[in-house]
Specification:
Layout: H1 2-32, H2 74-83, E1 91-92, E2 102-107, E3 114-118, E4 124-128, E5 132-139, E6 148-157, E7 161-166, E8 177-182, H3 185-191
Parallel strand pairs: 1-5
Antiparallel strand pairs: 2-3, 3-4, 5-6, 6-7, 7-8
Length: 192
């Protein structure tokens, strides 16, 4: 009896589910149907032709305002690089030669010792050991053909002078040049 009851319940549920699916699909099909077509109105658009532009030969010449985007500047940069390789280190007083600088003071009881150089305009600049000073000198290149710059470097700050050294990194066999800037140059002239 129990199995018969369960069978009846199962069959009635199956029928209910089947009916529900049919109504759902019918309702879904009705919702998916396209709306009735309406007549489209015709709209005429009148477009004017753009004005005719007249070009002349001067419009195609290259100027500062109109550059050729496909022009390569590679050759110009190669030539510039061959002519001179600028130093990429920080150089103090790089617009003046070492001959134009005057030593006016030394502080030697600190580490590192410091000295004050004055430029031709009277402005003082403090330098210490290892810094590069003065206008660079251009050296013609050897095998590469490119010239490069070398600078004077403060090698020592002594009690009465500073010693500058200039080394050529491309020619390590050549001895370095040395220059001494004296604190009181008039005293050395008077002693002679």
């Amino acid at each position: 009896m129990r199995t018969a009851t369960l069978t009846v319940i199962f069959l009635s549920l199956s029928v209910l589910v089947a009916c529900e699916e049919e109504t759902t699909t019918e309702a879904g099909a009705a919702a998916a149907a396209p709306p009735p077509k309406q007549k489209a109105k015709k709209v005429e658009v009148v477009a004017e032709a753009p004005p005719k532009v007249e070009f002349q030969e001067i419009d195609f010449t290259e100027t500062e305002r109109s550059r050729d985007p496909f022009r390569s500047f590679e050759k110009m940069f190669e030539e510039e690089a061959k002519t001179r390789v600028r130093s990429q280190r920080e150089v103090l007083l790089d617009e003046y030669s070492v001959d134009e600088l005057k030593l006016i003071g030394i502080v030697s009881r600190i580490h590192p010792a410091r000295a004050m150089l004055v430029d031709p305009h009277g402005t003082g600049h403090v330098v210490s050991r290892g810094q590069f000073v003065g206008r660079a000198e251009v050296v013609a290149g050897g095998t590469s053909g490119a010239s490069y710059e070398i600078n004077w470097r403060v090698d020592r700050v002594r009690d009465s002078d500073i010693v500058l050294v200039r080394e050529d990194p491309a020619n390590p066999d050549v001895p370095s040049a040395t220059r001494v800037i004296v604190l009181h140059p008039e005293d050395t002239v008077a002693q002679r």
